[in-house]
Fold this protein.
Amino acid sequence: MSRIDARLATLGLVLPEAVKAPPGVVLPFEFVRLTATRAIISGHPPANADGSIAGPLGKVGRELTVDGGNKNSPGVTALLDSLYGQADLQNCDLVAHARIGGVTKGFWYQPGHTFLSDFDPEGSIPADTLRSWAASGSEITYLGVPPGSGRRMGIDRDRDGYRDRWEVAMGSDPADPLSTPAVAATGGAVPRLPRLLQNQPNPFNPETVIPYDTGPGGRVSLRIFDPSGRLVRTLVQDAQPPGVYRAIWNGRSDRGRPVASGRYFYRLTVGNTIRSRGMVLLK
């Protein structure tokens, strides 16, 4: 029995003959996409059975569909743990999409095995709780996406700082960054929220512009961090009234020294509200 067949056997699945390798050809096992009745194998090289490019489990492009028939199987939970681990290591962002109770929902993984919902009142959801919601007709698909793209692909498609289902509930268009929830669906006013937009250009060299909205205004800070969480540069530290602002980062530290190429994170804090995004400096 091949390594792939053995792994599938532990999950109670059989690899279709159509996607097995010819005699003498080894397909490195990287990933199994599971539903109640089928599995899709991907390896590297060659291209995956579904036409995508293979890669290590849990990295960009890895996908896992969970339903009521497999959500508690050891194989599925092990694969999800691998996805969580890769996201925790920042090798990818992790999102999930589902149709639960007839409602299409999106989720964005956060360190510590929780997911942010695309509907603000739902807040943070433990990863095991989200998995428990999977059922026949309410499948949940998990997907590894490029670092820094999780918010957009999971809960905020137009990157305007407002989550998708919350925008729909408030009467604005979640696909249009110029449409934001200024008025509730019932006609009542809702509080203006701080927003942090994607820097432009990104990737950048030598400088980039970071747009942000202070929402109700107040004490505002905008800081740059390296991947280890170390503070690199403070761009804003001041009291600012409500409004839209732009900060420019020239790729230098607080000491005026050029920083190395790589991935950085910028964080907006307005009162008790925190927004974060990622960016890449290329030299």
